[in-house]
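REQUEST ID: PR-0412
SUBMITTED BY: lab tech R.K.
PRIORITY: routine
TASK: structure prediction, single protein chain
INPUT:
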Amino acid sequence: MYSLYIWGMSKLRRLSISLDEKLVEAFDRQIAAQNYPTRSKAIGDLIRESLTRSEWVKGRRVAGAILMVYDHHRHNLLHHLTAAQHKYHHLVIATQHFHLDHDNCLEIVAVQGKPGEIDRLYQSLRSVKGLKYCSLAAATTGSQLA
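STATUS: complete
OUTPUT:
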C-alpha cells in the first residue's frame, strides 16, 4: 500500500516496508555516517544505483567516466592513450586533463554509448603500458530515471 504526495512538479509516493530490526539499525548508522538527511533519500539513491546497474546489464545507452593517472614523461604513453580514444571517438563526449605534480597527470574521459563498447574502450585504455591507474565509473544518461 502506498500514499501519493505531490510537491511542486514531482510526484512522491510513500512506501511501507518491513525489515529486520538489526538491518534497519545498521542502515541508520551507515546513512548517518554518510550524512544522508533522511532514509528516503538514502533508499532512493540505492534504487537509482540498482536501476543504473540494470541499464548496463541490459545494454541500454549509458554514460560513464574513465579515470587515468599516468606519468606524462613515459615514452609513447600519450600517443597510445590518444590513439585508443580516437578509435572510439563516437563514445567520447569530453576529456579533462589535470596536472597533479611535475610528473603525474589525471585524465578523465567522459563517455556515452552502449556498455559493451564503453568496456572495450576502457580495456583498451587500461592495457596501455605505463598507466599507473585506470578505473571506469559507470553512470546513467538519466533518461530512465526520475
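NOTES: Helices lie at 21-33, 39-58, 77-87, 115-126.
REVIEWED BY: pending
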